[in-house]
């Protein structure tokens, strides 16, 4: 039986950004978790990580929005998931080397 390879953290980041782009904004995190296909508690962790990267704006109980940097990242990737994964990999690696 064929088993699908699990997604990497960066691929999940890309799925979150693409879902937010499609939705415009998100005030229901359970809906976003369902669209991305991750459990709610992991979604919270990923949102905090994306917030630290400066790609989203999120405050609990007020919704999730893409920041200017997040929108520019999507534009540079031309809303292509594979390109977005490459760009997000570079961003996350540059943050790790700085800290």
Automatic annotation (TrEMBL):
InterPro entries xrefs: ArnR1-like_HTH, WH-like_DNA-bd_sf, WH_DNA-bd_sf
Domain of life: Archaea
Source species of the chain: Vulcanisaeta distributa (strain DSM 14429 / JCM 11212 / NBRC 100878 / IC-017)
Domain ArnR1-like winged helix-turn-helix intervals: 7-78
Gene3D superfamilies found in the cross-reference section: Winged helix-like DNA-binding domain superfamily/Winged helix DNA-binding domain (1.10.10.10)
The protein's name in its UniProt record: ArnR1-like winged helix-turn-helix domain-containing protein
């Amino acid at each position: 039986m064929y088993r699908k390879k699990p997604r990497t953290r960066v691929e999940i980041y890309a799925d979150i950004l693409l879902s937010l782009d499609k939705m415009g904004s998100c005030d229901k995190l359970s809906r976003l978790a369902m669209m991305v296909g991750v459990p709610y508690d992991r979604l919270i962790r990923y949102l905090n990580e994306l917030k630290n990267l400066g790609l989203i704006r999120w405050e609990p109980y007020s919704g999730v929005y893409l920041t200017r940097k997040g929108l520019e990242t999507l534009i540079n990737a031309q809303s292509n998931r594979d390109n977005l994964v490459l760009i997000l990999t570079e961003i996350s690696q540059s943050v790790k080397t700085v800290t």
